[in-house]
């Protein structure tokens, strides 16, 4: 598949329920940064988030407007590590990035997480012809066996998924397990609908540990990379038109 486009999804977490919502998208195209809210659909998106306490960012008050800038928007740029830091090169190496990386690369690698709010950037699902790929950090890490087995995980390890349709919080929940069967957590809710369908339709895919960050916050300790091929029974257009599903990046 070709190089992932410079698009990131903005996620907001309700600190009381711990539920995360896909509320916006940030795109870097032809040298211009573009931000807009995710106004299509309901499940795990802006509308449901606002029904559960979310209010638009002060810098982007109009949820129907498309914002543009020649530079990375200030509220997002402040989420990056300061490039003037003496140890900035070391920071990039720890993130698996080179000196030639862009601000979008860094934002994707760090998630742009701050201790003062509950925003986070994540990568989209990329679909090209019948091939797809995505990567995500395991959700719910603190509640299962992740910290007990993290020392035994290695980059490149295969992980396994299982459906959890009886889950009280998400009927399309997907469990993430180590190759030895330990429950590590879940696929984040804003990806679970896609992978639930992939597994149900018996599409071929591979899921592996992409990165391990033992000292990171709980929901960014282990990153999983998934790549696969959709079969003839997988109806992309139905998913794109389903009000409950996330939009994809179609190439």
TrEMBL record:
Domain HIRAN span(s) in chain numbering: 131-230
Matching InterPro entries: HIRAN (IPR014905)
GO molecular function: hydrolase activity, acting on acid anhydrides, in phosphorus-containing anhydrides; nucleic acid binding; zinc ion binding
Superkingdom to which the source organism belongs: Bacteria
Keywords annotated in UniProt: Hydrolase, Metal-binding
Keyword Hydrolase: yes
Pfam families: HIRAN (PF08797)
Keyword Signal carried by entry: no
Name this protein carries in UniProt: HIRAN domain-containing protein
Protein source organism: Natronobacillus azotifigens
């Amino acid at each position: 598949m070709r190089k992932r486009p410079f698009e990131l999804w903005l996620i907001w977490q309700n600190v009381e329920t711990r539920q995360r919502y896909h509320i916006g998208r940030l795109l870097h195209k032809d040298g211009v940064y573009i931000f807009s809210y995710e106004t299509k659909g309901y499940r795990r998106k802006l509308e449901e988030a606002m029904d559960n306490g979310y209010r638009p960012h002060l810098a982007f008050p109009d949820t129907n407007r498309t914002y543009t800038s020649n530079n990375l928007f200030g509220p997002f740029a402040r989420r990056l590590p300061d490039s003037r830091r003496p140890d900035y090169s070391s920071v990039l190496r720890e993130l698996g990035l080179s000196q030639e990386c862009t601000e979008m690369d860094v934002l994707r690698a760090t998630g742009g997480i701050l201790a003062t709010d509950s925003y986070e950037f994540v990568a989209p699902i990329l679909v090209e012809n019948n091939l797809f790929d995505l990567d995500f950090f395991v959700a719910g890490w603190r509640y299962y066996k992740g910290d007990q087995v993290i020392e035994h995980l290695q980059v490149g390890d295969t992980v396994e998924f299982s459906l959890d349709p009886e889950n009280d919080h998400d009927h399309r929940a997907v469990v993430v397990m180590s190759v030895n069967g330990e429950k590590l957590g879940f696929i984040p809710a804003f990806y679970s609908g896609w992978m639930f369908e992939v597994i149900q339709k018996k599409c071929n895919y591979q899921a592996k540990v992409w990165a391990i960050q033992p000292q990171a916050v709980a929901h960014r300790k282990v990153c999983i990379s998934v790549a696969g091929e959709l079969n003839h029974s997988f109806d992309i257009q139905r998913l794109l038109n389903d009000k409950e599903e996330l939009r994809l990046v179609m190439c």
